[in-house]
Each structure stands twice: as structure tokens, then as C-alpha cells.
Design a protein that fits this description.
The protein is mainly alpha-helical and 371 residues long. Helices cover 45% and strands 5% of the residues. The protein has a domain at 239-370. The longest helix is centred in the first third of the chain and has 17 residues, at 73-89.
């Protein structure tokens, strides 16, 4: 579960490293598709509250666990407001357009202007973490019910123990150097010092109190998955690839996006893709009904971590190169050819920036050795 501006992009990148057989941004897919992904995938994530996920999974005959993150309430609020400026800079509108207009019109150096903004749009910005994690009735339930709902999670992390969350997922392999890993860090668009004023602090102590209580409670709970050893596998009834077990046709059957990349001339063979990408993306060598849910329309190339000396150059707005981006992301090139995006740049602005896409094909790994 992802609360807006609460480590969602970072968690997604970890999950993609652990298994590409998952689906992010579940808030934009239909309920029937949510069930399909839940039946066949390893993980789901999105800006949906736990009660919405539970309602979508009604009747699902599969064990499931819930994980989330919380951030210091004022820092989460400031980041969420700052994101409205970033969306405007990118020419995007997400959610209520009136909220974004009022945010950009606010004088954040004036504490009373901050209070007026938050009071007017309390439902949009205040106690957002409580609404997602506890439920829409967060303000009316008893303390006992509040703690019961919190304890139904396997793990909820704060900023200081995010690596423990990744270990609690239970996947057998995690990227190196988890400490300090942060994705989608937006530059500040306004001076947030006005939130330190006594006027704003007093307002938040009253109107943002539920998130303050939630944050403190998360830090005091011992979670069921806190000391978990890895227990999930990559197999899911399938076979993991090794250099010894590689089979060209089975690899292509299991990874239709690789087939597309070969047809487009971006890569010569499945074996070459495996050497350059698939080995570090933990691709599977499998075929069967699972494939249709993680084909090119629904699966991104899993972001790969620079943990072994290879070069995986990520795209930024400063280094963006259209052809390099399309060469590095054959699924995007295919989508452009099919008219789903006007250009690679359009995909990058809408999706690729937050997905950590590459700006050119990874280099440094060939035939099992660093060059």
C-alpha cells in the first residue's frame, strides 16, 4: 500500500528487483484485473487503502499480507504539497484540479495562508496516512479498534527502518546497499519554514492529530514479519534460469517483451537479452497461463541496481536522449510504434521518470564477465 508521497517509488523499485511479476499503480486498474494480478503475481502496490484492497480481493482464494510505510506527518504533508508544484511543472493534473490551483496560489511564508489552505482542503491533505492505513472512519473508532487494525499488517515501516520492510517482504534476494536508497526525490518548490510557526504547529496538533498518533504507534509496535527469514521463491511453479539451464525458446515463450525487442532489432536473441538484462532482472524460464498477465502491456523492464560494477545509466531530464531511451526500453519503442505514446519523451514524463528507466542499454556485462 502506498500513501501519496510516502516512499512509494522506492518500495516499487525494490519490489521490481525482487520479482518483476507484480503490478504497481493498482489505483488505475479495474477490479477484475486486480483479481487477475492477485491470483498470478507476487506483489501488488498502489495508492489504495487497505479496505479498498480487501474489498477487491473478496472471494480470492489465496493467502495475502499487507505492508505499508509512514512518514513523519508534517514531512509527508509538506512533500505532498510540494508534489502539486512538481505536477504543474510537468504539465500534469492528478486528482482535484482546484486543490492544485490553491496550493500554487498559497503564500507559504505566511502561516495564516498555510492554515487557510489546509483548512479548506483538509480531506485532501490532512490525516492522509490514517485514511489509507486505518480506513475512512479513522477519526471515530476506539483506541482498541485502531490498534487491532494496525496489528493486521505484517509490517509498517517508518523512514528510519525502511530496509527492515524490504527484508520483511521475504524475498530471497535483495539489492546491495539498501541503506539510504531513495527514489523520486522531488526538489523543493517552496520554503517550508512557515510550517515551524506556532500558528501552524497548533493547527496541525489539532487537525492533523490522527496522523501524529499513527506515526507514534507504528514506532511502538512489534510486527509479525519483523525478524522474518526469506520464505518466498521466484519459482511460482516455474524454473529459474541459470547459464547451465538456459533454453532459448522457453526463455522467449516466458518473456514476450524480449520477443518484441528482437523483432524491433533492439537485441539479437533471447540469450543476448539474458546476458545483458535478464540475469540481473531475475527473469524466469517458464510458460503457461501466468504469462498473459505480465506481458509487454503490463510489465516494465525491472530497474536493475548498480551493485556489481555494471553501468546502468538512469534517464533524467538533463541527460534525456530520445533514441537512447527507446534503445534501452524496447517495450516503450513498441508502445510508440503502436501509437500508445507520441514519443519516448512523453512516456518518460508520464511514467519513466518515476520507474527509474534507463537512458541507454546497460553496458559492462557480456558473456558472463565484466568487460
Amino acid at each position: 500500500m502506498h500513501v501519496p508521497k510516502t516512499a512509494g517509488s522506492t518500495v516499487n523499485r525494490i519490489l521490481k528487483f525482487c520479482s518483476y511479476r507484480g503490478r504497481e499503480q493498482c489505483q488505475i486498474i479495474t477490479a477484475p484485473d486486480l483479481i487477475k494480478y492477485a491470483l498470478h503475481g507476487d506483489w501488488l502496490s498502489g495508492h489504495l487503502s487497505k479496505d479498498v484492497f480487501e474489498a477487491g480481493f473478496a472471494g480470492l482464494d489465496r493467502a495475502r499480507e499487507y505492508f505499508s510505510t509512514v512518514r513523519r506527518p508534517v514531512a509527508q504533508l509538506v512533500s505532498y504539497l510540494n508534489w502539486q508544484f512538481e505536477l504543474s511543472r510537468q504539465g500534469r493534473v492528478v486528482g482535484n484540479h482546484g486543490d492544485a490551483v490553491d496550493v500554487r496560489a498559497t503564500n507559504f511564508s505566511n502561516p495564516m495562508s498555510i492554515v487557510a489552505l489546509l483548512d479548506k482542503h483538509a480531506d485532501a491533505f490532512l490525516n492522509v496516512q490514517s485514511r489509507y492505513l486505518i480506513g475512512p472512519d479513522f477519526a471515530t473508532i476506539s483506541q482498541g479498534e485502531f490498534l487491532r487494525r494496525l496489528s493486521s499488517y505484517s509490517f509498517i515501516a517508518r523512514e528510519d527502518n525502511l530496509p527492515n520492510l524490504y527484508r520483511a517482504f521475504g524475498f530471497p534476494k535483495l539489492p546491495n546497499e539498501l541503506e539510504g536508497l531513495r527514489e523520486n526525490v522531488t526538489p523543493p518548490h517552496f520554503d517550508a519554514s512557515g510550517f515551524d510557526s506556532p500558528i501552524v504547529q497548533e493547527f496541525l496538533a489539532q487537525r492533523h492529530a490522527h496522523d501524529l498518533r499513527l506515526y507514534d504507534a507504528v514506532g511502538e509496535i512489534t510486527w509479525s514479519a519483523e525478524a522474518r527469514n526469506p520464505f518466498r521463491t521466484f519459482e511460482f511453479g516455474c524454473v529459474c534460469i541459470s547459464p547451465e539451464s538456459f533454453d532459448e525458446q522457453r526463455y522467449l515463450d516466458a518473456n514476450p517483451d524480449v520477443v518484441d525487442a528482437i523483432k524491433l532489432g533492439h537485441i539479437a536473441s533471447g540469450h543476448e537479452h539474458y546476458d545483458v538484462y535478464g540475469r540481473t532482472e531475475h527473469r524466469l524460464m517458464r510458460s503457461g497461463a501466468v504469462d498473459e498477465f505480465f506481458s509487454r502491456e503490463t510489465r516494465e523492464f525491472a530497474p536493475t541496481f548498480q551493485s556489481t560494477g555494471f553501468e546502468f545509466p538512469r534517464a533524467t531530464r538533463e541527460n534525456f536522449d530520445e533514441q537512447g531511451y527507446l534503445d534501452a526500453n524496447p517495450d516503450v519503442a513498441d508502445a510508440v510504434l503502436r501509437g500508445q505514446f507520441p514519443s519516448g519523451r512523453a512516456h518518460f514524463e508520464l511514467h519513466g521518470h518515476s520507474e527509474g528507466r534507463l537512458i541507454r542499454p546497460a553496458v559492462g556485462w557480456k558473456d558472463g564477465a565484466v568487460q
